[in-house]
Amino acid sequence: MFVDARAPLHAPKQEIALLANAVNLLVPTETNDGEFHGPSIEEFFPGPLLFEGSPFEISRITLVQFIAVAALLLVFWAGTRRMRVVPGRFQSLVEMGLDLVRVNVADDLLGKKDGKRFLPILTTIFFMVLFMNITGIIPFLNIAGTSVIGVPLVLAVVSYVTFIYAGIKESPKNFFKNSLFPAGVPWPVYIIVTPIELISTFIIRPVTLTLRLLMNMVVGHLLLVLFFAATQFFVFQLGGWYALLGAGSLAFGLAFTVFEILVAVLQAYVFTLLTAVYIQLAVAEEH
């Protein structure tokens, strides 16, 4: 709906109403007027399903996050409850996932000693992000658990705290000094270098980790909804020759579904890899 110019509004309310109109123009919401309306950002703020108004309120996305965690626990329980020297297919699949993190991330970046120390948290981050991401293409779930800022932010904070812990543990006295005052830089230059290091090392890192994961999942969901909503509109509402356009949008939707699987895995890997890189920088010899 558009704002009635004759309605008396206070300044804050008017700004909110104008912003809502702008969003409505850019990302139209679904109505029953017979016209096509694309996906809205409001999909990431669904209404409550259970315990409305309480601190334990559960929305659709919260439920998806619970399902992803339950599936993750079930997979690892089923894959490790009867370990064998000659693994079966399911155990082999779980071990392949664990080896991906251990060999290609932990050992490769941190070495055997530090890799073993931080392997549990790196493995947890990888599989949690992966399972939260993959719900975006599972029928009847159709949204990633990482598509709201809570989960990416918590994981970024965990990564950030681990990075700080690793640096302080390795060099309690010199970690912050070496991070903010790199060796070999003339003292006058520290006036410029130190603020840059403070912002890039201790502020930008958790922000970029959060936003990279969040934005990829949000955009992926909006694209999939757009293509499949267009298919439904062309085939079932317009019909006739427009069904050919529906076939095209369906093909694009299926192609982007495969692409979204790749993005889900890649974002889990990148998040874990960057966490390992930050830890490696924290435990470097100059610290």
Protein architecture, described:
The protein has seven helices and two strands. 24% of the residues are buried. Helix content is 70%, strand content 2%. It is mostly helical. The longest helix has 49 residues, at 190-238. Strands 1-2 form a two-stranded antiparallel sheet.
Quick description:
With 287 residues, this protein is mainly alpha-helical. Helix content is 70%, strand content 2%. The chain is globular and about 75 Å long.
Features:
287 residues, mainly alpha, two-stranded antiparallel sheet, 7 helices, 2% strand, disordered N terminus, ATP_synth_F0_asu, transmembrane
The secondary-structure element order is: HEEHHHHHH
Strand coverage percent:
under 5%
Number of domains: 1
Query: Rounded to an integer, what's the Rg over CA atoms?
Result: 24 Å
Number of helices: 7
User: How much helicity do the residues have?
Assistant: 55-70%
Using the alpha-carbon principal axes, give the shape. globular
What spatial order of strands do you see in the largest sheet? 1-2
Helix and strand content put the structural class at: mainly alpha
Average pLDDT confidence is 85
Function: Key component of the proton channel; it plays a direct role in the translocation of protons across the membrane.
Main location: membrane
Protein name: ATP synthase subunit a
InterPro entries: ATP_synth_F0_asu, ATP_synth_F0_asu_bact/mt, F0_ATP_A_sf
